[in-house]
Write a structure and sequence with these properties.
Number of helices: 1
CATH superfamily: Cupredoxins -  blue copper proteins
Order of helices and strands: EEEEEEEEEEHE
CATH architecture: Sandwich
Distance between the termini: 18 Å
Shape: globular
Largest sheet: 5 strands, mixed
Number of strands: 11
Strand content: over 45%
Structural class: mainly beta
CATH topology: Immunoglobulin-like
Bound molecules: copper (II) ion
Number of domains: 1
Strand order of the largest sheet: 1-7-4-2-3
């Protein structure tokens, strides 16, 4: 059974500082890329997720078959959230799945703009 055991989030005030190493793994979201700094361990991970961009973003964690393991709520630009998620060993896709329609009617799909990256957990 592939379910998140723990989902616990704390919104923290943004101080503009990048996540420090002592807080564990970190993910940065921005227009339009995701950078993930491990190590991501098998088991419970406390991931510091920072939206370093201007627009709202999310972090969606999916396994190789595309099944969503867990996801954050919308994170506003400049905010950092502590995202606690249980991950089994394996390869995951970290992505943002926001799609917005801009004034001229064009759809902007953050995933297709480049907000996706591959993360290995444990000995995968
Ligand atoms: Cu996004």
């Amino acid at each position: 059974m592939r379910k998140a055991l723990v989902t616990f989030m704390i919104l923290t005030a943004s101080c503009g500082a990048p996540a420090s190493a002592e807080t564990g793994p970190a993910v940065d979201l921005r227009e339009f890329s995701i950078s993930a700094e491990g190590p991501f361990e098998s088991g419970v991970n406390q991931i510091s997720v920072t939206n370093a961009g201007e627009f709202g973003h999310t972090l969606v964690i999916a396994d190789r078959s595309g099944v969503v393991v867990d996801a954050t709520p919308l994170i506003a630009g400049g905010e950092t959230l502590l995202f606690v998620v249980y991950l089994e060993p394996g390869t995951y896709e970290f992505s943002c799945r926001i799609v917005v329609q801009v004034d001229d009617g064009t759809l902007v799909d953050h995933y297709h703009e480049g907000m996706t990256t591959t993360v290995k957990v444990g000995n995968a």
